[in-house]
Amino acid sequence: MSDLYLPSCCTALSDHWPLPQALPGVQLISTRFDPALLDAGDFSRSGIAAVNGVAKRQAEYLAGRLCAREALRRVTGIASVPAVGTDRAPQWPAEVSGSITHGSGWAAALAAPRDTWRGLGLDVEQRLPAARAERLAGEILTPDELQQLHGLTPEQRAERISLTFSFKESLFKALYPLVLQRFYFQDAELLSCLADGSARLRLLIDLNGDWPAGSELAGQFVELDDHLLSLIAIPA
């Protein structure tokens, strides 16, 4: 790993690849973080612009940008930090695709050459409790996805709803930089998620560029303790 400053609120950066299938040219960097250990000077010492908010918001942002900086260093040789655009999305160098995620004390970032991977979307989510999953199902799932829940136990339903939520977040992160058009949970559906960690999603609306309704994208996922990690990678 690089010798850049690492604040005490973050563990040593890791390049462990937790997902089922490694992707050539893609760098995944992760860390665990503890907001209680965040120091007021950590942003300036890290060379990262501070953000407003409670300690949790600040720590997760800092951890995610530290991971992104290391991922970019490995891809480009330059340890730069993605800025925040007016649309709140990370601003990656023109020749790079990337994605940042964080949740419940874990943060990670992906980066890869854009001439190899057009888009990358990474998302980590805590499994929803069964009761909350049922309350949110109608917002997250399409009618066809709701049909696929029939016959599942409450725990299986909660896991499928949580995974669908995560995949749709990853899908947005991967596609939004390409289409610059917002879309929502009901605009795509999870077609399959298999025991080997592979998945397929389908768009239900036309998006800018070459993304008509019916376009299918491949994904992968893994269980991390009580979390789900999903990835959408769009080849060049």
TrEMBL record:
Upper lineage: Bacteria, Pseudomonadati, Pseudomonadota, Gammaproteobacteria, Pseudomonadales
UniProt binding sites for Mg(2+): D123, E125
Keyword Isomerase: no
Gene source species: Pseudomonas borbori
Molecular-function GO term, any one: magnesium ion binding
SUPFAM superfamilies: 4'-phosphopantetheinyl transferase (SSF56214)
Pathway field: Siderophore biosynthesis; enterobactin biosynthesis
Catalytic activity: apo-[peptidyl-carrier protein] + CoA = holo-[peptidyl-carrier protein] + adenosine 3',5'-bisphosphate + H(+); apo-[aryl-carrier protein] + CoA = holo-[aryl-carrier protein] + adenosine 3',5'-bisphosphate + H(+)
Signal peptide: none
PANTHER family: ENTEROBACTIN SYNTHASE COMPONENT D (PTHR38096:SF1)
Name listed for the protein in its UniProt record: Enterobactin synthase component D
UniProtKB keywords: Enterobactin biosynthesis, Magnesium, Metal-binding, Transferase
Cofactor(s) the record lists: Mg(2+)
Function: Involved in the biosynthesis of the siderophore enterobactin (enterochelin), which is a macrocyclic trimeric lactone of N-(2,3-dihydroxybenzoyl)-serine. The serine trilactone serves as a scaffolding for the three catechol functionalities that provide hexadentate coordination for the tightly ligated iron(2+) atoms.
Subunit structure comment from the entry: EntB, EntD, EntE, and EntF form a multienzyme complex called enterobactin synthase.
Annotated ranges, domain 4'-phosphopantetheinyl transferase: 119-197
